[in-house]
Amino acid sequence: MGGGYFDLDDILSESQKFTGSFKYDVDNVGCLINSKDSAKISKQDKLELPFWLVEALTRVRIGEEDNDEIIFAVERPEYLSKIATNFFKASPLNADLSTVPHFYKVVKNWCEFIEQPELIEIVFNMLVSRASKINDLSLNTSEMHSRENVEFIQTFDAFEKELFQTSAESYGNSRAWIKNIIR
Amino acid sequence: MYGDTGIKLVLAAKRANTLDRIPLYEGDLVQTVLSECNELHRLNEISDEDNILLTNQSQVSNITDSSAFGSASRNGSALNTPLRSSNGHFLSSSVNNTPGNLVNEGNSVEVEQTLNKLPEYVRGLFISQNKRCLMAYEMQRLRRLDQLVWDNIELSQEQLSDLSHHERTYLEKYISLVSGVKGVMSEIDLGGDLEPPSDVFIDVRVLKDAGEIMTEYGVFNLVKDSQFFVRRVDVERLIQQEYLKEL
């Protein structure tokens, strides 16, 4: 998927919001909850923060090396909950990924953040089965406008859209090339 | 929240990728992000000063604790009072500084110290994220400019005015760099098309008047709407500049 410091998609995927809360009452960071700086944030308050901020905050630890504690805890987002992943496993083609525009990158960030081999496998298998359907579609662009397929296309995340475009283009190019040879 | 404007810039850059020309430089957004950074930086400097005061104060209070009597201690505490009221944390941290509490609440001192630094840390994070957004936005535009230079496409006056002042300077310097590189290997046309041509001669139609051109096969007078059968290499540059159109 490429990526890097200047990559626009990477920046956008890292700005995906996650919900979490502080383990202590904290002062003077009111900017995190859209209020004046001196505002208090208590332990019970739920915060919606972009991923890059969550990651940096969980890097802050208190205590000795082996016995340290995080000051910020993040929750598993709903679209990666047990129910959602079961759904991904059962019918990958019906999953609606368009609600999280950079779904695969977000999952990648999330899995780099907390190790979860199971989730990686489920999402990977989902990508494989969706990718083969995307491949079929881009070979047969005439079928693209049937109702079922239009619905499927609408569930794409940014990566799948790109994949679809690239593969449709490549099929077009190879068809043109073959025509050229035969002539 | 801080950082939202930066994301707007990134989205603008993303949208620009799908357009066939470079859109107007988002000067206002860039300015907003910059002033956000300046503000965060200013706040951090203030809190830096506060921290220095805080450590000075605790040193003073340590001294007064150890010397215990004398006018020095009274003077010290008298000096401290206005500062003490200006900073809420000072009282609590001075309580924790007493030896008895240190043993029991060693952890809470650490918690306090970490949490005191948190606002500064968070502001630093916002600044670096803003910086990343600005750089990514600018980078995307510069890459497009580079591409235009290599494709031999000249920007019209109107398009040039969509660029920022610095971008225009960059473009000028990049053009002279590229022509410098091309000059080193003058026998090879580095700016040429990478696709091998299928025919040596092509039909072209003139889109706008371009005057006379000299070729090995004679002189052509390029008047609008006329058609010619010419050698591709002779007119390639004119096609790129949109004087001619290949048929």
UniProtKB/TrEMBL annotation, chain A:
Protein name as catalogued: DNA replication complex GINS protein PSF3
Cell location: Nucleus
A GO-annotated cellular component: GINS complex
Gene3D superfamilies assigned to the protein according to its UniProt record, in alphabetical order: 1.20.58.2050
SUPFAM superfamilies found in the cross-reference section: GINS helical bundle-like, PriA/YqbF domain
Record flagged with keyword Electron transport: no
Keywords for the protein's UniProt record, in alphabetical order: DNA replication, Nucleus
Keyword Nucleus: yes
Subunit description: Component of the GINS complex which is a heterotetramer of SLD5, PSF1, PSF2 and PSF3.
Automatic annotation (TrEMBL), chain B:
Source superkingdom: Eukaryota
Alphabetical UniProt keywords: DNA replication, Nucleus
Keyword Cell inner membrane in record: no
InterPro entries linked: GINS_A, GINS_bundle-like_dom_sf, GINS_Psf1, PSF1_C
Main localization of the protein described in the UniProt heading: nucleus
SUPFAM superfamilies: GINS helical bundle-like (SSF158573)
Subcellular location, record wording: Nucleus
Subunit composition and interactions: Component of the GINS complex which is a heterotetramer of SLD5, PSF1, PSF2 and PSF3.
Protein name: DNA replication complex GINS protein PSF1
Native organism: Pichia californica
Gene that this polypeptide is encoded by: GINS1
